[in-house]
Amino acid sequence: MHEGMTDEALMLAYRDGDAKAFEALYSRWRGKLYRYLLRQCGNAAYADELYQDIWLKIVNARKGYEVAAKFSTWLFRIAHNRLIDHYRRHARDAIASYEQDEESDFAEAAAAALPAPASEQPETLLERKELAEQLVHHIDALPAAQRETFLLSEEGEMTLEEIANATGVTRETAKSRLRYAVGKLREGLKEVGEARGVR
After folding, report:
1. Is the pTM of this model over 0.85?
2. Among 3.40.50.920, 3.40.1000.20, 1.10.1740.10, 1.20.120.1810, what is the CATH number of 1-98?
């Protein structure tokens, strides 16, 4: 019933008392929002706390919800504001790095299931894991504003206009931040490729 509904229609239905509409909305956005928060604050415990906080704000704001922008813009605007509050309380340098235990578990499970196609052989999986770790490292190394813009574009699947609205900047500023972020990531991954002898 809820599959074909837009995010905005789901939120309006939830506002009007349809709890299943909220479940559908939550299911659509939980992974993207959590990954965005995790990449932004770099710590699973903080990301969990922020994640719960944001969904609680959505629940509490439901009665006054009106469609003024896309739901994703509204959601990530709330997330952006909550992150700013978080940064004011905690210095980013004091936050521990994110460890990718799930990827390690995946690589071990895949290796145990041999024989597998060439794309799933242990050495290929290890190479992918190392590349993913390098990408995460380069994303983490981006200045906060560029990292946020990149994550909103990739995880939030937001347009430049939506990113600008969510973060309170102009479209040109969002565009510039995204361009710089993508450029730095390409350069970082190019260096990784060159180090491996890939041209």
Report:
1. no
2. 1.10.1740.10
